[in-house]
Specification:
GO molecular function (chain B): electron transfer activity; flavin adenine dinucleotide binding; steroid dehydrogenase activity, acting on the CH-CH group of donors; succinate dehydrogenase (quinone) activity
Helix content of chain B: 25-40%
Largest sheet of chain B: 5 strands, mixed
Keywords (chain B): Cell membrane, Electron transport, FAD, Flavoprotein, Membrane, Oxidoreductase, Transport
Number of strands of chain C: 7
Bound molecules: flavin-adenine dinucleotide, protoporphyrin IX containing FE, iron/sulfur cluster, FE3-S4 cluster, FE2/S2 (inorganic) cluster
Radius of gyration of chain B: 24 Å
Largest sheet of chain C: 5 strands, mixed
Oligomer: heterotrimer
Number of helices of chain B: 17
Strand order of the largest sheet of chain C: 2-1-5-3-4
Strand content of chain C: 5-15%
Strand order of the largest sheet of chain B: 1-21-20-12-18
GO biological process, one term (chain B): anaerobic respiration
Family (chain B): Belongs to the FAD-dependent oxidoreductase 2 family. FRD/SDH subfamily.
CATH architecture of the largest domain in chain C: Orthogonal Bundle
CATH topology of the largest domain in chain C: Fumarate Reductase Iron-sulfur Protein, Chain B, domain 2
Number of helices of chain C: 8
Shape of chain B: globular
CATH class of the largest domain in chain C: Mainly Alpha
Structural class of chain B: alpha+beta
Largest interface: B-C, 81 and 79 residues
Membrane topology (chain B): Peripheral membrane protein
Chains: A mainly alpha (about 210), B alpha+beta (about 625), C alpha+beta (about 240)
CATH class of the domain at 272-400 in chain B: Alpha Beta
CATH superfamily of the domain at 272-400 in chain B: Succinate dehydrogenase/fumarate reductase flavoprotein, catalytic domain
Helix content of chain C: 25-40%
Number of strands of chain B: 21
Structural class of chain C: alpha+beta
Strand content of chain B: 15-25%
Chain lengths: ~210, ~625, ~240
């Protein structure tokens, strides 16, 4: 009963958003760190991918991620619809440029979602990958980032993710009742962007080939 | 001009030792059986400190309460604007305060024109008000030890003023409003915001209801109950420009007066010395700057009148620090009425007089001054666009509070059975002058403690028979206002009336001026009903109509104020008759002839004066001196 | 000075912006005094004046509230519309004036909206149950100065609704949180702290306000500087109330 009442409240929904967001954030950080294995050569990263499968975390992880993304999106949509209903008539005068958070969170989330679909087709299923051999993570990546439009797509996505986190990491804390300086989120977001972008950058610059 | 009727007396006040009177009255009051309370209904008009605290407390007792206010929420009543603080004889500082001392200060402060019994009760209850408010969560200022802080205020030598930054009224009102909200949720109080009372319903000699207009739909309707409480605040807006909120009006009490309630001491008006001067002809309201500024600021005017130079270019030798000159011992800290009159006599209202912090900044440093007065300086700068740290502030007196109001007895009951009047709307406790931080105290004492203690004695005879009240008179009046379709706005009449009252019945009054006003007011009133223009209809949200109705009542009240001021040929408190002053220009009271409350009866023609004699057994009348 | 006003006029279910050029304004006038001037001239022309809410005109009653050029209470920081002066506009400016917009704030006429939903939120639990006359001595419970200061900062809310008007979600969470934090910070407010959080949030949601997503637009709009930490505090109280 209590839990249901909590889930029904707007504050409860935000808490769901925050908890799932933090879950996704942890994955994103872990994934980024894993990606850095590429700098230790093909064997390291391919081996790392194989090892993950061996120890059997992949399916539980996929399941958890799916649950998080699902809940995250459901409450995001519910809150967005509520917001639209709460202001049926807008203002005639263009408002002061809205805070970037309000503008980017929802669209940023959509961009990330679309990217993930493409990303899975690309690197997990391999069907959208120029190399496209499962298990050959290193070669798949290098093949990808030789193409300028793939680099562009990844860069845009990672920047969208960075923006999302820049507000989201702070916002999640606020939603869970912890007051933290906004700077923390900026540090996290910057680190994540840098970590992810280092991979395509390395390929483009020829550090990894 | 007026006729004198039979004297009137407060028959409810017990005699005997003054400390026991309130206790005695409470014991003497008949009680309503708890089961019957649910059958008894009370209308409370007004949701300021007095009205909200009364509605909450009566609801708690079990009465069925219906509350009205004209704002869109009870929380916005004018009490919200009080800045300074609230007095209470807690003696938390061990500085010699006591109920007795607060009582004495208040009687003296009122210049011996209030009732000793009432004032003593107020002082006794002051202590419990603070307890009540703290329990409700009112965030009073505290010291590091976690205990309540106090400060001193004009007219007192002890530190007994409790405060919440510069927003004491707001915090106290929110406390009372929340208590009322709790009763609304509990179903004992029904709230009708955006509803204006336009008439009192008197049935079989008892006040039995009100006729109101829904300010959104325009619908006029009657509400009946077993008793009616008016907590509708003061009528300072008769002067057009005052520190009161724009909507403050006399309509509720004036309509009750026309239905038979006596109006006491209408001419007793308080003028606050430190307000921001008028900036232009479209000025809509005056803003108070806390009196505390006079603790460190020095007041001066240029020695030469109309000196065109900016203040900082006027050399020290050509400045007249007139308060320091005229009142060497109190200097800039003389009481409100004296400081106000001196300012008016010496300067013009557009420019005001200078309140200079240059010395204070040199002596204490800018930081200290900023810590003490930062928020006031900011407010000043926001309104005037001038920086008070570098150029002296300009201040000027403004109408602030009205001590007069409907006459009530010790039970707070007016001369109409069943009509109770509380807060600034009654005349009760402040005599001819109110001390700072005492109005909030009175409003809450009335609403939380006095009224709940006395109203039962009346209601015990209820419930009274049901009947249907008519609304035609109010509807006709609304229609009449709309029908004039003249060529002047209600605002222009208000402005003209206000100007006249300020000039002739303001800080200083004399016979010639008052007679002039008494000639002019009826003309202006006639002109109003010939020329006022109210657009729109009665069946809609129509702010012009609201305004016109209020101005029409001010035009009637103003006349009574002038009659009262003219008949009282003495000076006392806020009422200064230039004919009655000491050789050095101070107010000269005439206790032999005027130690009474002037309670006026409405007749439609000349008012009838009923005098209530005032006796002073515990505080001996003396003359105030601040030289 | 001269200004061109575009003001929302509405007497039925819908409305529109109407343009009014104004001349001979003084920079020392307040924004509401300018509307007074406009209204007097409209009345004299036999037109209906612009309805707008106001009372104290000194920034404390919370009655005034206008969207001025898309900004709640206008361009000055920490200033209500009634305390805004024309000196903050440039001669010749065009200024758009609209009512607060939110589903729980229906427009009653022109610039006047019905904000009684905010009262409903308070009635749902924004109080401390302290029956009259039952209070212990005020010094019975000392309040640490820091708690007293937090309570005061939150208690300063004037209930104007600017936070709702500015919030992209039409949320009244800042208003709700200000009251919950005020009472929840004080020892006197502890017994009802958890139910208060639940009941006030429930009322807020039931009234049709949007949910807060930490957009932060309410903060610059709030004339009384209510901090965002109050919302975090309410979130925490609500979660704790359920998880206890
Ligand atoms: C700027 C300022 C500062 C002040 N500072 C202090 C201070 O520091 N200390 C102090 O002790 N006092 C102070 N005072 C005085 C004090 O604030 C008031 O005297 C007191 O608040 C009056 O309270 P009230 O409850 O009687 O009436 P109000 O608060 O005026 O409430 C009147 C109520 O009646 C309603 N009402 C009025 N007419 C009608 C009608 N016709 N129909 C329906 N409803 C109606 C209104 O809606 C409102 O709810 C100050 C006053 C001002 C103006
Ligand atoms: C699947 C696509 C995603 C969508 C559609 C989405 C959408 C949203 C939305 C709408 C918000 C609310 C923001 C606001 O309005 O303030 C939000 C918050 C958040 N998102 Fe996402 N998001 C997505 C993916 C992610 C990912 C991958 C992460 C991990 C890094 C993440 C982390 C967060 C965090 C931490 C928050 C803040 C939670 C809070 O404010 O309480 N999101 N997201
Ligand atoms: C430049 C940046 C990125 C690189 C190089 C990268 C690389 C990879 C690779 C190689 C895989 C496949 C691993 C395998 O099959 O073993 C993968 C899977 C995945 N990536 Fe990324 N990725 C990047 C960015 C992102 C981002 C921004 C997100 C999320 C928002 C993301 C989410 C995922 C997910 C969900 C999977 C699937 C995991 C699974 O198999 O369940 N990736 N990524
Ligand atoms: S929180 Fe601020 S903006 Fe919102 S109602 Fe209170 S004072 Fe107004
Ligand atoms: S703008 Fe709205 S989303 Fe929350 S932080 Fe303020 S209520
Ligand atoms: S009119 Fe009271 S806050 Fe603006």
């Amino acid at each position: 009963m209590q839990t249901l009442r909590l889930y029904r409240s707007t504050v409860g929904k935000k808490a769901v958003m925050a908890v799932t967001g933090v879950g996704l954030l942890l994955f994103v950080v872990g994934h980024m760190v894993g990606n850095l294995a590429i700098f230790s050569g093909p064997a390291a990263i391919d081996g790392y991918a194989a090892w993950l499968r061996e120890i059997g975390v992949v399916w539980p992880l996929r399941f958890g991620l799916l649950l998080c993304v699902g809940l995250h999106m459901v409450v995001a949509i519910q809150l967005a619809r509520r917001a639209r209903k709460a202001r049926p008539v807008g203002y005639e005068h263009g408002r002061r440029p809205q805070s970037y958070a309000a503008r980017t969170m929802r669209w940023g989330g959509v961009v990330i979602a679309l990217f993930v679909v493409y990303h899975l087709l690309d690197l997990t299923a391999g069907v959208a990958n120029p190399h496209g051999v499962q298990g050959e993570v290193y070669n798949n990546l290098v093949a990808d980032f030789r193409l300028w439009y793939v680099v562009l797509a990844y860069t845009v996505a990672v920047l969208a993710l960075g923006l999302h986190i820049r507000h989201g990491a702070w916002s999640a804390l606020q939603s869970l009742g912890v007051t933290a300086p906004r700077g923390i989120a900026l540090v996290v977001a910057t680190a994540i962007c840098a970590g992810y972008l280092s991979v395509p950058a390395a390929v483009v610059l020829g550090v990894v080939s | 001009m007026y006729t004198e009727g039979t004297p009137i007396a407060d028959t409810k006040a017990p005699s005997g030792p003054i400390e026991n009177r309130w206790e005695q009255r409470r014991l003497g009051a008949r009680l309503v059986n708890p089961a019957n309370k649910r059958k008894l209904s009370v209308i409370v008009v007004g949701t300021g400190l007095a009205g909200a605290s009364a509605a909450a407390s009566l609801g708690e007792l079990g009465y069925r309460v219906t509350s009205f206010c004209y704002q869109d929420s009870p929380r916005r009543a004018h009490s919200i604007a009080a800045q300074g603080g609230i007095n209470a004889a807690k003696n938390y500082r061990n500085d010699g305060d006591s109920v007795r001392r607060l009582f004495q200060d208040t009687v003296k402060g009122g210049d011996f024109r209030s009732r000793e019994s009432n004032v003593h009760r107020l002082a006794e209850l002051s202590v419990r008000i603070i307890d009540q408010c703290v329990a409700q969560g009112v965030p009073f200022a505290r010291e590091y030890g976690g205990l309540l802080d106090t400060r001193s205020f004009g007219g007192a030598q002890v530190s007994r003023t409790f405060y919440a930054r510069g927003q004491t009224g707001q915090q106290l009102l929110l406390g009372a409003y929340q208590a009322m909200a709790r009763q609304i949720a509990a179903g004992t109080v029904t709230s009708h915001p955006r509803t204006e009372m336009l008439d009192l319903v008197v049935h079989d000699g008892r006040a039995r209801g009100v006729v109101v207009r829904d300010l959104v739909t325009g619908q006029v309707s009657a509400h009946t109950a077993d008793a009616v409480v008016l907590a509708t605040g003061g009528y300072g807006n008769v002067f057009h420009l005052s520190t009161n909120a724009k909507g403050c009006n006399t309509t509720a009490i004036w309509r009750a007066h026309r239905r038979g309630a006596l109006f006491a001491n209408p001419c007793f008006t308080q003028i606050h010395p430190t307000c921001i001067p008028i900036s232009g002809e479209h000025q809509s309201k005056l803003t108070l700057m806390s009196e505390s500024l006079r603790n460190d600021g020095r007041v001066w005017v240029p020695s030469v009148k109309d000196d065109p130079r900016p203040p900082n270019d006027i050399p020290e030798a050509e400045r007249d620090y007139y308060l320091e000159r005229m009142y060497p011992s109190f200097g800039n800290l003389v009481p409100r009425d004296i400081a106000s009159r001196a300012a008016k006599n010496i300067s013009d209202e557009r420019k005001g007089v200078y309140l200079d912090f240059a010395d204070a900044i040199a002596r204490l440093g800018r930081d200290v001054v900023e810590a003490r007065y930062g928020n006031l300086f900011e407010m000043y700068q926001r309104i005037t666009g001038e920086d008070p740290y570098t150029a002296p502030m300009r201040i000027y007196p403004a109408v602030h509070y009205t001590m007069g109001g409907l006459w009530v007895d010790y039970d707070l009951r007016s001369t109409i059975p069943g009509l109770f009047v509380i807060g600034e709307a009654n005349f009760s406790d402040h005599g001819a002058n109110r001390l700072g931080a005492s109005a909030l105290m009175q409003g809450l004492a009335d609403g939380y403690f006095v009224l709940p203690g006395t109203i039962g004695d009346y209601l015990v005879d209820g419930p009274f028979e049901a009947f249907t009240a008519t609304t035609t008179e109010v509807e006709d009046r609304v229609a009449a206002l709309l029908a004039v379709r003249g060529d002047r706005t209600a605002e222009s009449f208000h402005r003209e009336l206000g100007r006249l009252m300020w000039d002739e019945c303001g800080m200083e009054r004399d016979e010639a001026g008052l007679r002039k006003a008494l000639d002019r007011i009826p003309e202006l009133r006639a002109e109003f009903w010939r020329r006022v223009r109210v657009t729109g209809t009665g069946e809609q949200l129509n702010q012009e109509l609201e305004k016109a109705g209020r101005v029409a009542d001010f035009l009637e009240l103003a006349e009574l104020m002038c009659v009262d001021a003219l008949h009282r040929t003495e000076s006392c408190g806020g009422h200064f008759r230039s004919e009655s002053q000491t050789p050095d220009g101070e107010a000269l009271r005439d206790d032999e002839h005027f130690a009474y409350v002037a309670a006026w009866e409405y007749t439609g023609a000349e008012p009838v004066l009923h005098k209530e004699r005032l006796d002073f057994e515990h505080v001996r009348p003396s003359t105030r001196s601040y030289k | 000075m001269k200004l061109t006003l575009r003001i929302w006029r509405q007497s039925g279910p819908t409305g529109a912006l109407v343009t009014y050029p104004l001349d001979d304004l003084s920079p020392d006038m307040s924004f509401l005094e300018m509307l007074d001037v406009l209204n007097e001239s409209l009345v004299l022309r036999g037109e209906e004046p612009v309805a707008f809410d106001h009372d104290c005109r000194e920034g404390i009653c919370g009655m005034c509230g206008l969207m001025i050029n898309g900004v709640a209470h206008g361009p000055e920081k920490a200033t209500t519309a009634c305390q805004l002066h024309l000196r903050h506009f440039r001669d010749g400016d065009t200024v758009t004036v609209e009512p607060w917009r939110a589903k729980p704030f229906p427009v009653l006429r022109d610039l006047v909206v019905d904000r009684s939903a905010l009262d409903r939120i308070v009635e749902s639990g924004g109080y401390i149950s302290a029956p009259t006359g039952s209070a212990p001595d005020a010094h019975a419970t000392p309040v640490p100065k820091q708690a007293a200061d937090t309570a005061f900062t939150s208690a300063a809310c004037i209930g104007c609704g600017a936070c709702v008007a500015a919030c992209p979600n039409g949320s009244a969470m800042l208003f709700t949180a200000a009251k919950a934090t005020h009472l929840g910070s004080l020892p006197q407010g502890q017994p009802e702290r958890w139910t208060r959080a639940q009941d006030m949030v429930q009322a807020h949601d039931d009234l049709g306000f949007g949910g807060c997503t930490n957009a932060g637009e309410c903060i610059p709009a709030c004339p009384k500087g209510i901090p965002l930490t109050t919302i975090a505090q309410l979130n925490r109280d609500l979660l704790r109330s359920h998880l206890r």
